[in-house]
Amino acid sequence: MTAAITALTLRELKRFWRQPTRIIGSLGTPLLIWLFAASGFAGSFADPDQQDSTFGEFLIPGIITMVVLFSTILASISLIQDRHEGFLQSVLVSPVPRWAIILSKVLGGGCVCMLQAGLVIVAIAMTGRLEGTVHLLEALAAAAFISAAMIGIGLAAAWYIDSTAGFHGVMNLLFLPMWLLSGALFPPEGASPWLAWVMSVNPLSWATRVLGESLGVHDAASGWHWMGTIGFAVFGVGIATLVIMQPRRSG
């Protein structure tokens, strides 16, 4: 069983390395947004006498979350591609249990997410924006929990959706508002009371707060933020397991 999980996980990693456009898209878009927002539009969100470094640093956790978000969507959509290629059907009729599919997708996608998140942290650190202590392992752990949650939710959706275009539409409808309301662009302190409440119960906001603390950008995250982030990962993997383990047509 271990050999089967290892083979499926390595297949996910090989698929990533063989798609350079996937690497460019996952990393390039968030970094361009950070560059433009931190350097070009920072004055729109700060006092004239305030340097733009404050806003640029504030954006860093949200940008890393966006990198993970893009990567998890691509990791989840591979399930639809496997179905179209006939590979998923082959795995389903083999002795390999269905939970091995979930585990391999989460492990493979999680490794890719952590690698990309680490590259972004190093790239931004080289610009001098991260002046505080960077707890890289904590940041990578937070990225891993985010990826597990998002990949799990994505796999549950991909199990029912047979179109890659339709999958992208559904994921954008679900994940983009979560990201916008995670404190990635604007702090909840300045939001309307009802919107601030929505942001406070948004699981992605807990993970963004944890990332911000790890990078020395935000105030210290509480244990509840960590517990919420871990719980979000358990929920995502759990919903994928619940959906995929149910008997259902695979193609």
Task: Describe the model.
The protein has helices spanning 2-17, 20-40, 53-85, 87-92, 98-126, 136-160, 164-180, 193-200, 203-214, 223-244. 75% of the residues lie in helices and 0% in strands. It has 251 residues and is mainly α. The model is unreliable at 47-52 (pLDDT under 50). It has one domain (2-244). The chain has 10 helices and no strands.
Average pLDDT figure = 81
Biggest sheet record: none
Count of domain modules:
1
| Tally of helical runs | 10
Question: Key terms for this structure?
Answer:
75% helix, mainly alpha, 10 helices, 251 residues, single chain
In short:
The chain is mostly helical and 251 residues long. The chain is 75% helix and 0% strand.
Topology diagram in text:
Elements: H1 2-17, H2 20-40, H3 53-85, H4 87-92, H5 98-126, H6 136-160, H7 164-180, H8 193-200, H9 203-214, H10 223-244
Helix pairs in contact: 1-5, 2-3, 3-5, 3-6, 3-7, 3-9, 5-6, 5-10, 6-7, 6-9, 6-10, 9-10
